[in-house]
Amino acid sequence: MRRGLWDLLPQKMHGLEDALLRAVPAASGGPLLGDLPGTVSRPGLLVVPNMDPDSFAFSQQTFHLWRKNRRPPARQQREGAGGCWGVDLNRNWPISAGDDAQGQSLNPCANTYKGKFPLSEPETSGFVEWLEQVEALGYDVVGNLDVHTFGQVILGAFASSDRLPRNAAVYAEAGELMASSMGFLRGLQYEYDTGSSGGLLPLTSGTLQDYMHGRGSLSYTLELGPPSFKNETSVAGFLVPAAEMEPICIELADGIQAFLQFLSNKTAADLWDSPDDE
Fold first, then answer.
1. What is the pTM of this model?
2. In 10 A of CB 167, how many CB atoms?
3. Radius of gyration of the chain, Cα coordinates, nearest whole angstrom
4. What domains does the chain contain, in order, with CATH numbers?
């Protein structure tokens, strides 16, 4: 029996995205981790404020631009994977059949190291275990917003391919609504796109975005400000000035509100009238 609809808002998979730990709870404006009850007609909001607490602590105390989790080198060595720290959690999710494993590395010392196998990390496997408990209670997780920095881009399915899902029109409708809502406050250009955006974005496999699409959620990656993700060659966009925090929070809140409103006006058939075969 369906007890309610939920929009899932996980974030902070990468240690260097410290702006998110301030932005997401403030933007949600409400309880975290499911204290806000959903109903059949009005979706609730589940917020996972920090997917990678060890990495966040390390980025605050030692190296601000650390990206991966903090899997120790000794453990990597025991698994025959070299002697470098960490796995990129946003390359560690299961991929679907036919995925060409884009944008992830087998090299343990690479920033995009995908791990020994999907869900090898306690952060990703624990998230899936928790998600299954939520679903076992009768809740449908119908939407997913995976929040990152930076670029002012809303990315719909798929992250790993330029092909489009069968419900691409639904993705575009909600994605463009979020983009326009988030850009309204300061007159910024938030864009909606998919795949490689005509070759301007890297294709990426093993992402939470594509994994949640495979589980039946309308699933996006939200890249908050500043802009220039497509052509950025430096790390400056991860170093968000304090003065930018509040407007970014408001922009994210506007995007969340737009997405929840979109979902509240749709049935499951509206979202998935032609589900993918994968």
1. 0.82
2. 20
3. 18
4. 4-271 (3.40.630.10)
